[in-house]
Write a structure and sequence with these properties.
The chain has helices spanning 11-18, 38-56, 59-64, 66-82, 92-110, 112-121, 124-129, 135-163, 172-200, 203-219, 232-239, 242-255, 261-287. By secondary structure, it is mainly α. Helix 5 (92-110) packs across helix 12 and helix 9 (172-200) runs antiparallel to helix 12 (242-255). The chain starts with 10 loop residues before the first helix and ends with a helix. 36% of the residues are buried.
Length: 288
Amino acid sequence: MSAAPATPLTASADAGAEHGRPLDLLLSPPRARTGWTVVPARVGAMCIVELQKLRHDRTELYTRAIQPALWLLIYGETFTRLHAIPTGGIPYLDFLAPGIIAQSAMFIAIFYGIMIIWERDAGVLTKLLVTPTPRAALVTGKAFAAGVKAVIQALVVVVIAALLGVGLTWNPLKLIGVAVVVILGGAFFSCLSMTIAGIVLTRDRLMGIGQAITMPLFFSSSALYPVSVMPGWLQAISKCNPLSYQVDALRGLLLGTPSHLGTDFTVLVVAALAGILAASSLLGRLAK
């Protein structure tokens, strides 16, 4: 077998080699990250990739804004006139608005597993798993991207609620707290969806299970009515439902109603971490 011919050096390379200097390169590769900066960089990169998809196609945001608008316009306005639900002295439309923000954030995240199944079918997930990026970083990036999408959706609901006359706070610190609560809720529900995707493995099964659990999660939370008016068995379920803690925190931050912000943030952080661990452990099974 004859040896492959050597590639001739360019004039600049010849000049550098003659003077004992390293060869000049047209492009310098990025410096490899090491230590604790690796995982945050990977999470940020995955988050940016997901948001780039949204930048190229905003249809999902427009269509998903219709449902929360209908909830506020029809359900909220009607029950505000009925005075049938005790809301602690605030108009029912004001009481409902934080619940609809939480609901819209959950709806945008609960079917996130469909996207990762599509990536599996297109071969993208396999390519991601052979990179040095830890699986937890892949899942965390996607989870926080879902949370940021949920914040954009929540912003639409806040604008609609403000136009309807809901007395929301405009305190910047409280609004930042609202964004953090929405991101944590979106991260948890997207991880729940990716976990279910890792178990059922198919798009059709995930759609069926997603539709089966979405409304029970919504109706067993405090989004539509106070926990105190629920029957005892439903109150017990509500206390295990992360959506209830998300609604409680949003109500406290946006309306200034009595809430348990410390407990709410703790539950949402723990739920998001548990979701990331569960989804990461099933990512390899999903890719097979």
